[in-house]
Amino acid sequence: MNDWISFCGETSRPDVTRACLALDTSARLEFATSADGLRRAVFESAPGELGVIVGPAPDGVSDVNLAAALAHDGNARRVVLATAGVSGSLRSRAARAGVDLVVDFEELGEGPCAEAGRSAADGGPCTLPAAVPLPTSSSRSEGTAPEGSAAPVLVFCSGRGGVGKTSIVAAAAAQATLWGLRVVALDLDLSCGNLYSCFGLTGGFDLARHGVPGEGGTDATRGVCVGGAPSLRVLGPCERPETAELAMPHVGGLLERLSHECDLVLVDTSTTFTDAVAQAAQRSDRLVLVTDTRPGAAAALARMAGLAVRLGVARTRIARLENRTSPRSRMDFALGRAEVGLEAARAFRTFEGGAEVSDLLSSGDALDLAEAGSAFSDSVACVLAQLLAELGRLPPAEGAQQALEADAPGRHRGLLGRLREAR
After folding, report:
1. In what residue span(s) does the CobQ/CobB/MinD/ParA nucleotide binding domain sit (predicted)?
2. Distance (Å, rounded) from C-alpha 135 to C-alpha 128?
3. In whole angstroms, what is the distance from residue 49 CA to residue 51 CA?
């Protein structure tokens, strides 16, 4: 993920190049000849393929408005505004528009990776050299987390049933276990969830017991270990549906504890947005909204995205995943339009796996599904690798690296690929 594209005035190109190298020392940078050309190139690229740097633009073009438009369009891996003499009001305006970073040329120093800039939140050093995080940026979602820090929490939601959330969570948990991670799969469909059945278990840990003196207490985070995979534990749902309300107040605290006891937390949720699901969404490092290709998908996705934003989930922490697609079909970018509320969301796809996937999961063989490989499990591995890489938590396992380097589901050549082929 080293491809970048920029638009700026001719005299600003050297400064923009320095800013790009400060963010990514192995960057490959191309310059668009117009603002419209920049937006078109980003739109035609695969989701997340290009990082964008908007520099001081020629007369008639507002650099901050252009950056805001690109953030609104979505599809870019990161939108950066680079200029000189950055003011606090400019940073605030960019933050409100969804721009990811602001770089001040005056703080770049002499070398391409010179250390400059300070955190807007606490005055500490920046995660990325010379880049000033905007006030709304989450420090947990940038850079490589230090050893001993909280594990990533990935929460999978949908606005309708039958989209395949449970299958995706089970496949992702199995894949992460094969990569050597200690994984907790948490089922927050507290009344009717059956995530445990994908691993051949007769039940998960009864979450209604969590936090009740004498009925689980400190053992609640241990969960139920999956046979043949001691590093994978399953928690939830509630043994009796009528006890679901007993578990809901404790979900936020449970997730916090789990994130310090394992390497990855994957959360399956109910179709409805209960208090438990809301707490998980707010605590998540990535909230993945799962949809499919059935009629009504856009409306359900819009409802979920709007609610997530109202709950305070930053748009940059939201991703959308289109499940059960065909490798021959193209991503439906209409689902990411502004009216849906996902203009800043990364977009992913997982492929239809056929009857074999359903048979293996229903018989409790999620681990065998991951080991055997299929269009479905391989695409889930690719999505998981990209999400963990974004969070700086991709494991060094060979399988994880291969999943990251594989072509992303639905990936197609963008402007940079076509330019290189033409040379």
Report:
1. 155-206
2. 15
3. 7
pTM of the model: 0.63
Q: What is the pLDDT of residues 7-39, one digit of tens each?
A: 999 999 999 999 888 888 888 899 999 888 898
pLDDT digits (tens, 9 = 90+) for 261-270: 899 999 999 9
d(CA 78, CA 316): 9
Among candidate residues 351, 303, 302, the one with its CA nearest the CA of residue 168: 351
Is residue 160 a contact partner of residue 303, using CB atoms and an 8 Å limit? no
Domains of the chain (ranges plus CATH)? 3-137 (3.40.50.2300), 153-405 (3.40.50.300)
Q: Hey, what amino acid is at 307?
A: L
**Which of 254-258, 280-284, 307-311, 358-362 shows the lowest mean pLDDT across its residues?**
307-311
Residue 224 near residue 207, CB atoms below 8 Å:
no
Name the maximum alpha-carbon separation found in the chain: 70
In angstroms, how far is CA 378 from the centroid of its own chain? 18
**What are phi and psi for residue 215, nearest 5 degrees?**
-125, 25
Ordered alpha helix ranges (H), 259-405: 275-283, 297-310, 355-362, 366-372, 375-390, 398-405
